[in-house]
Amino acid sequence: MFRLVHNRLVKYLIITNNKYQSHLRGAVCNIPSSAASSTMSLSHPPKMNTTREQFLQNMQKYFQSTTTGKGDIDLLALTRPDCIDIYLDNNDYLHLSYDPRLIDDDAYQHSMKSVISKTEEISHQNLLDQKQHFSMPRQGSGNIMEGVFLQQACLQYQVSDLLAKKILGKESVYLTQSGYVANYGLLQALVIPAKTHIYINTAAHESLWQGASRENLRKFGSGIIVVDSLYSGKGSIVDLIELCNLKEQYNCMLIVDESHSIGLYGQHGCGLASLGNVTDRIDFITSSLAKAYCVRAGFIAGRTQEILYVREKSSAAIFSSTLMNWDIQRLQRAINIIYNADKERQRLMHIATTVRHAAVTLEFDVGQTPLPSPILCLNGGPNLFSKKLQSYFENAGISGAIFIPPATPLNGSMLRLTFHAGLSDEDVSRIINTFEFIAQHHRSDLPYTFLKRSTISLN
């Protein structure tokens, strides 16, 4: 995610860095001011490709570069979706999207029953019996307007405060329309118009944190370190303690995206930053809430004054409509459910450990992680090999998500399997049996998926 945000910001900076190009007197075409202010004849346009012709050329060039020559998005789709009964292609880690406490249509009733008092400790009894409730919209869906116009007493502010104080351990939270918007808006506020270094490895999504290596920090000095705590491209877990040490040694700022770890790790699912006891050492925590929380939203968490600054500098807060109240009500319920989901978290980690151990034993090139990870990615290499992998699992009634460029490096496609707490023991056995079948019958079909024999330890 950060790689895409970073690339867009670079393009934005290139355009906006030259103020003259952003004015009508020449726009972005470098038209001389004298020509821009004069009357120009349209009867003899310059002999060059029109904008549409250039667009069509770019489109044709792109399609020619894809695997089929017709685009690659069809590669992501299952061939026989009706045959699937074990779904490992989404991020519903705690199986929350099937929880009636979350999906009940009577959002108002749930809001009345499951609100947490700001002045009392959270407990299971509080979640069930708390009579105090948040302010509800008086009409329709509340204020459908830009986030900068929200009032302090609104539902969004109250749920933001709940998330900040009770879950994240941060002073303030700004709720955004998505995790992408959170990351983009935060980097926009921090980078523009200042000139600063961003330590981020754009070569490979799963190793973004390597951009904050000691070598780069020594070479370029203070800057902004951006990482995912758990990388969706490999299921690898970053060493947040080491990064905090680097951040402090080189006087950097640190942004941690907890999209795939919030709700899963730490006490009450507070995330990897909380588990590592480094929350106070991290400047900003961001996340999508569309993973474990199953809510269409995102957030930026940090110090109160700094979050206020980000809100007032973020284009999404100024020029885009804010969250709808039913999304905020759903988030309110999700917070209360996930807070007490220790049983589901334990089940998820047991499943993740069991399947990864089986895959490693069968010599799949997946590697180990310092903590159980609910994401297991199988290397495909060129795109069509990942499609093969997907079809083998599909034949067993199991779905997996194909990742291709630009979400992966070129010729680095993969099949991602994401586990969830709703899997039964029979489901887990079937998943492992499918791994065994592929290892026994299709090893030669998948040259990038297994460890090379020369690299396998004899121990």
Characterize the structure shown.
With 459 residues, this protein is an alpha/beta fold. The chain folds into 2 domains: 73-94 and 342-455, Aspartate Aminotransferase, domain 1, CATH 3.90.1150.10; 104-339, Aspartate Aminotransferase, domain 2, CATH 3.40.640. 39% of the residues lie in helices and 11% in strands. It is built from 17 helices and 10 strands. It has helices at residues 2-16, 33-36, 51-65, 100-103, 107-113, 124-129, 155-168, 179-191, 214-220, 240-249, 272-275, 304-313, 315-319, 325-339, 342-361, 383-395, 425-441; strands at 86-88, 172-176, 197-199, 223-228, 253-257, 284-288, 298-302, 375-381, 398-403, 413-418. The chain has a 6-stranded mixed β-sheet, sandwiched between helices. Helix 1 (2-16) packs across helix 8 (179-191), helix 5 crosses helix 14 and helix 8 (179-191) packs across helix 12. The two termini are 38 Å apart.
